[in-house]
Amino acid sequence: MRVLMIAPPGAGKGTQGALIAAHFGIPHIATGELLRDHVARRTDLGLAVQEYLDRGELVPDQVVLDMVREALVAAKAAGGGYVLDGIPRNMQQARAAYQIARELGMIADVALHLDADDAEVIRRLLARAALEHRSDDTAEVIAQRLVLYHQLTAPIIGWYRDRGILVSVDAMRPAQEVGRDILTALEEMWPLLDHGPEPRGRPVDLTTLGEAFGATEPGRASG
Ligand code: AMP
Predict the structure, then answer these.
(1) I want to staple 152 with a disulfide (CB 3.0 to 4.6 A). Which of 68, 90, 175, 191 is the partner?
(2) pLDDT tens, position by position, 146-158
């Protein structure tokens, strides 16, 4: 199963990405997490991107594309499935990610759109700010991230719709309900996909997925 996610910050990409990864036994490639890890370890890359993250700006395309290429090569060796979380964020990234995936023979099967309105994601991100202290979960930076989402990221949704791989889910509901709908939709698509030896997912049973939701209160989703 090869999935990429398009969603505003706070809609639940992190939570649902982890759920999909656990269900299908595939790597969860989260660009924001990878970048935050570099910042925390104070690598050269981390020092170079820290200001972008703190301001809620997008880091240069080439930085994330290089990271994603590396992660996809590893995913290929691990069986070929993946769930991409946080990329693409603009049309150039969508085209470049498609090229990389095509070269590797790993084009996405599904573009999963988590649909949530601004008021709801702002509410969730401010609640998360109190718990996780992410440097970009302040009212001002959240506003900037949402502007970029509407300007640059949301327009890509139509591109995936035209390619016939868009699945849109109402993400304004509790995380477990959203997760159940996502897994059900992905399982329904499975027979239509050509995956060779990759193992398939298990029946949709969220009770066995405590870990994916373990750190998450009902109704709360991380971004
Ligand atoms: P996220 O965890 O997906 O909300 O990403 C956190 C931050 O990481 C974003 O606000 C950007 O600064 C940066 N980032 C993550 N993914 C990308 C991407 N694909 N392109 C550019 N910047 C990104």
Answers:
(1) 90
(2) 999 999 999 999 9
Query: Which pLDDT tens digit goes with each residue over 109-164?
Result: 999 999 999 999 999 999 999 899 889 999 999 999 999 999 999 999 999 999 99
Q: Is the CB of 52 under 6 A from ligand 1?
A: yes
pTM for this structure?
A: 0.89
Measure the CA–CA gap between 23 and 37, rounded to whole angstroms. 24
Q: Which of 14, 29, 55, 51 is nearest to 145 (CA)?
A: 55
Residue 109 CB–ligand 1 contact under 6 Å:
no
Is 58 close to ligand 1, i.e. is its CB under 6 Å away? yes
pLDDT digits (tens, 9 = 90+) for 31-40: 999 999 999 9
Q: What residue's CA is closest to ligand 1, atom 15?
A: 32
- What's the 183 CA to ligand 1 centre distance in angstroms? 25
Q: How many helices (H) and strands (E) does the chain have?
A: 10, 5
Residue 215's pLDDT is what? 45
Residues whose CB is less than 8 angstroms from the CB of residue 112 and which lie 6 or more positions away in sequence, other chains included: 3, 4, 5, 6, 16, 20, 167, 169, 182
Best of 89, 90, 140 for a ligand 1 pocket test (most atoms within 8 Å of beta carbon): 89
